[in-house]
Amino acid sequence: MPDLRTSSLALFLLLSLAVSSASGGSFTMVWRDDFDGPQRGRPDLSKWVYDTGHGNSLWGNNEWQTYTSSAGNVRLDGQGHLFITARKEADGSYTSGRLKTKGKFAQRYGRFEARIKIPRGPGLLPAFWLMGDKGQWPANGEIDVMENVGDAPETVFSNVHAPGLAASGTHQLSRELSEDFHVYGIEWSPGRIAWSLDGTIYRTLRKQEVPAGAQWVFDDQPFYMLLNVAVGGDWPGNPIASVLPQDMVIDWVQASSYTP
Questions:
Q1: Known catalytic residue at 142
Q2: How many CB atoms lie within 10 A of CB 184?
Q3: Residues 43-63 pLDDT 10s
Q4: Fewer CB within 10 Å: C terminus or N terminus of the chain?
């Protein structure tokens, strides 16, 4: 009997090699991670960097978690998946994982996609996002491909941040996102960012649409990718220990270059 996962992956890769889009250009895959490796193995450190430390000092938002490089928080499952696990420790603290491609891979423009099954629970904030390679936030820019909070289990949040700009968008399904894997993506071309879910674009933001006084920094430099699950803070609210641990499961991540 054929391996359906392998067959499906081969077909997806073939279709992804060079595909046109609504941006008027084409995209060619240049970077991918399928998270192959042994059970409880580390992610490929030629592609990813652990972002460790207390979440609030890293980012703000009054987050509660400490990001670690422990296999209890970041690990392969031996079946082609990456697990990022948020948990409450015996001492009452919260830990989780955050990975980034900074220093390993960054790109200006392109298609960035990940197939993810998000966690479900109050006080959790799973995310797949991009940051400008140089400079400090918000001047370097932030593109949130996918965010979710526990009190909106059916909603994908798609946000951007830059000086004078905090443009938020949402897309709602008829069932909870955590029930299954979904492909979260953006198509990014000069003066344009479009968000997609399972291959269908649901939101487009253009440079000419940003308010007066806001800076469009998204054409200025390459951006790198991040994956994380935050715990607690201003947006998701307080976690409930009884629902932890919770996993964000990532099947694959890929990036494609953009040709006008």
A1: yes
A2: 28
A3: 999 999 999 999 888 888 999
A4: N
